[in-house]
Amino acid sequence: MDRATYQGIALDGDAALALLEWQMEMGADVPVMDDPVDRFELPARVPAPDLPAIAVEATPKIPPIPSEADDLAQRVAQAKSLAAGAMSLEDLATVQERFDGVELKKGARNFCFADGRPDARVLILGEAPGDEEDRQGRPFVGRAGKLLDQMFAAIGMARDAVDTEKAVYITNVLTWRPPGNRDPSADEILVSMPFLARHIELADPDIIVLMGNIACQAALEKRGILRLRGQWVQAFGRPALPMTHPAYLLRNPAAKRDAWGDLLSLSAKLESLSV
Ligand code: URA
Question: Which domains does the chain have, with CATH numbers?
Fold first, then answer.
């Protein structure tokens, strides 16, 4: 069969397939047309046919999730603004109780603001409500509180004294109980600080007693109560005396001797500020 004749004949299916396989065996891998096409001359893009426009919904903007640091800064800023707006201790108690920026509020039973006489010369700063304080909504009413009352009674002072000279006012760094009486976290202290600073400003005591490590951490940014105790410092712009916490004294009765010395030092300071 000569070539011309071969190209002229109509091929049936079997013959066409056999021919294609033979071409592939010979190395043909790209089908080309009879007329050569210079592909470099073709337009770079074939314009797409006009399609009906499809309405694409705008992707909703997802607000960025605030980082933990942003969230903390916001809560501190809100606490500052609320505290600054409080013009009396009653106002402060109201705004602080309503403030939701402290997670502890959800697990606590009662808001624990203060006890004693707000016009007292001595303000005692504890750490946070315990179980009994959480029940009653008053600071230092459990076992440690009973010892605290006895300690101050020994120098003629009491939370319910009629004479303001003999009275004490008591509050805590935190107003809500931490679960299981754990130490307050650094963030919890930070968020509570604007309220505490305003609390002290409004009560305006002559002297602050810093009861234990947490009070020292909040007021002085220092811990190590056994080193700090008994040494007069400045806190919140006034004289302050760090003392061992009554809960520590219940566990370590031998430390009561030093605590007694600190109470005498407090008495002497009050005397010296009066003259
Ligand atoms: N310990 C504190 O520091 N404060 C309280 O109110 C009770 C126990």
Answer: 68-274 (3.40.470.10)
How many other CB atoms are there within 10 angstroms of residue 201's CB atom?
14
State if residue 126 touches ligand 1 by the CB under 6 angstroms criterion: yes
The pTM is what?
0.77
Question: CB of 127 closer than 6 A to ligand 1?
Answer: yes
From 134, 136, 172, give the residue whose CB has the most ligand 1 atoms within 8 Å, as the site to mutate: 172
Q: What is the pLDDT along the chain (275 residues), one digit of tens a residue?
A: 445 555 666 777 787 777 777 777 776 665 556 666 666 776 666 666 777 777 767 776 777 777 888 899 999 999 999 999 999 999 999 999 999 999 999 999 999 999 999 999 999 999 999 999 999 999 999 999 999 999 999 999 999 999 999 999 999 999 999 999 999 999 999 999 999 999 999 999 999 999 999 999 999 999 999 999 999 999 999 999 999 999 999 999 999 999 999 999 999 999 999 97
Please tell me the distance between residue 172's alpha carbon and the centre of ligand 1 in angstroms: 7
Q: Kindly give the distance from the C-alpha atom of residue 126 to the centroid of ligand 1, in angstroms, as a whole number.
A: 5
199 CA to middle of ligand 1, Å?
17
DSSP assignments along 233-270, one per residue: EEETTEEEEEE--HHHHHH-GGGHHHHHHHHHHHHHHH
